[in-house]
Amino acid sequence: MAHRLQLRLLTWDVKDTLLRLRHPVGEEYASKARAHGLEVEAASLGQAFRQAYRAQSLSFPNYGLSQGLTSRRWWVDVVLQTFYLAGVRDAQAVTPIADQLYEDFSKPFTWQVLEGAEATLRECRKRGLRLAVVSNFDRRLEDILMGLGLREYFDFVLTSEASGWPKPDPRIFREALRLAQVEPAMAAHIGDSYPCDYKGARAVGMHSFLVVGPEPLEAAIKDSVSQECLLPSLSHLLPALDHLEQRKQGF
User: Fold this and answer.
1) How far apart are alpha carbons 26 and 9 in whole angstroms?
2) Which of 3, 86, 158, 184 could form a disulfide with 44 if both were Cys (CB 3.0 to 4.6 A apart)?
3) How much is the CA Rg of the chain, to the nearest whole Å?
4) Crossing angle, helix 42-59 and helix 71-85, to 10 degrees?
5) How far is CA 188 from CA 4, 86, 235, 241, in A?
6) Strand pairing partners for 188?
7) Coil, strand or helix: which one is 205?
8) Within a 10 A sphere around the Cβ of 196, how many other Cβ atoms?
């Protein structure tokens, strides 16, 4: 007799879980600047981007939607501030670079599917699981997933821009459960952020798996995430799901 799955829904983070940038942000910015006649070191731009992104996220959370911004305006401002911090003070020269970067980051050629991602999604669908995206991304995500051939695996794509709530706000997870008409105990979330993905999903009663890299885990994560919920790669997800099902059934 076929094994009857207890889980019904898997929700997925996207960036650094299923996809990553083909090149570091600093290199992308430096390349576009060079095409517009500006020479700026990639390392300086990478460092400046991290600073600008952090400040923008604190001042205007979730793309500043509640403060009158659009996600495009939010990102253009991040690019302008990145170049300013890297020593380029001419906003007029940087604006066309910012516009080009916004467009390029919506194209599949800027992204790559992580190893094992598509095979894992395909196998999850074969097992009868419903899949959905829950991501702190903006409106460009649908087109990116389509261009990379991944959109077909998901019942729906829920972004923080569309919902108005960024992870780890419980409302974005509850909205995903509502759309899927699934109880929290019958759903699991997969992502690479401990506060946004792992803790955010568990706070609403969902199961959760944390995708981790090769670097050592922080003590807080080690102490609070059980080993079977840690995924060194996406190929570890299916055995982890099997383990969860067996544990739930008392095997």
Assistant:
1) 36
2) 86
3) 19
4) 130
5) 16, 41, 16, 9
6) 10, 207
7) coil
8) 21
Q: Which two tokens stand for residue 241?
A: 């799901």
The SS3 assignment for 213 reads coil
pLDDT tens track, the chain, 251 positions: 344 448 999 999 999 999 999 999 999 999 999 999 999 999 999 999 999 999 999 999 999 999 999 999 999 999 999 999 999 999 999 999 999 999 999 999 999 999 999 999 999 999 999 999 999 999 999 999 999 999 999 999 999 999 999 999 999 999 999 999 999 999 999 999 999 999 999 999 999 999 998 888 888 898 899 999 999 999 999 999 998 887 766 54
Say how far apart CA 151 and CA 158 lie, in whole Å. Answer: 12
Query: What are the beta bridge partners of residue 191?
Result: 210
Contact residues for 224 (Cβ-Cβ < 8 A; gap 6+): none
Q: Single out the residue of 65, 236, 85 nearest to residue 164, CA to CA.
A: 65
Query: Cα(first)–Cα(last) distance of the chain, in Å?
Result: 16
- Which of 101, 178, 115, 110 minimizes the C-alpha distance to 144? 110
